[in-house]
Design a protein that fits this description.
- With about 220 residues, the protein is mainly alpha-helical.
- It has nine helices and no strands.
- Helix 1 crosses helix 5.
Length: about 220
C-alpha cells in the first residue's frame, strides 16, 4: 500500500504525457536542462540561440524518448495498475478502524482484577465496534482483477478470524471469573487470523512488483 503514491505519479505521467508539447514548454516548468544543468544563466542573444538549439537536440533524445516509453506501455498492465489504485483507495480509509481496535486492545499487556473492567469497556466500546466496521468494510470491496481478488480474500478471512478472537476476549473479560479456556480460544483465533494477514502482506508486496515495468 505504501507504493500507492508512486503508482499514482506513474499513471498521472502516462495520462498527461504528450509528444505535441514543444520542448521549450517542457523546460519552462523546471528551468533544468535534460543533463541537470541550470538554464537561468545570463547569456548573450547568440549564446541563448546556441543553448536553445542544444536543448532541442537533448529533448529529442531525452524528453521524447520518455514519452515513447509511456506510449509503448502495455495497456493491460496500465489498466491493472489503475484497478489496484482503485482498490487501494477503497481500503485506505478503513485502516483507521483497524488501528483504533488494535491500539485499544494493546493498552493493557495483562488482565488482572484491577483493570478487568477497563478491558471490558475497551473491548465493548472500542475494539469490537471498530474492528466490526473494518471487517464489514473490506468484505464489501470486490477487486476487479481476479489475482488481486484472491489475495484480498485472505485479508477478509484473516480479519474475520481476528474479529472472532476479539469477541471471545470480550467474553473472557466480561466476568470476574477469568476462564483460561476462553482466553486460549481467543488467542488461537487471533493467531490464525494474523497468519492469513501476513500471507496477504507478502502476496500483495509481490503482486505490485509487476508494476515496476511502468517506472
Amino acid at each position: 500500500m505504501k507504493n500507492k503514491l508512486l503508482l499514482t505519479l506513474m499513471l498521472a505521467a502516462l495520462v498527461t504525457a504528450s509528444s505535441a508539447l514543444p520542448a521549450s514548454m517542457t523546460y519552462a516548468a523546471t528551468d533544468d536542462a535534460p543533463d541537470g544543468s541550470y538554464t537561468m544563466d545570463l547569456t548573450t542573444d547568440a549564446d541563448a540561440a546556441d543553448n536553445t538549439a542544444t536543448a532541442e537536440e537533448s529533448a529529442d533524445t531525452d524528453t521524447y524518448g520518455d514519452e515513447d516509453t509511456w506510449a509503448n506501455a502495455d495497456p493491460v498492465l496500465v489498466e491493472e495498475a489503475s484497478s489496484f489504485l482503485d482498490y487501494s483507495d477503497q481500503m485506505e480509509p478503513l485502516f483507521s478502524y483497524e488501528t483504533k481496535a488494535w491500539d485499544a486492545y494493546n493498552i493493557n499487556e495483562y488482565v488482572k482484577s484491577s483493570n478487568r473492567k477497563q478491558e471490558y469497556k475497551l473491548m465493548t466500546y472500542t475494539v469490537v465496534p471498530n474492528y466490526t466496521k473494518f471487517v464489514s468494510g473490506i468484505k464489501l470491496i470486490k477487486p476487479k482483477n481476479s489475482e488481486l481478488a484472491k489475495i484480498h480474500a485472505k485479508y477478509v478471512k484473516g480479519a474475520y478470524l481476528e474479529l472472532e478472537g476479539f469477541v471471545l476476549y470480550k467474553k473472557y473479560v466480561s466476568s470476574a471469573r477469568l476462564d483460561d479456556v476462553i482466553l486460549n480460544k481467543s488467542k488461537a483465533k487471533l493467531k490464525a487470523g494474523g497468519k492469513l494477514i501476513d500471507q496477504f502482506n507478502k502476496e500483495i508486496d509481490k503482486y505490485i512488483t509487476k508494476f515496476d515495468a511502468l517506472q
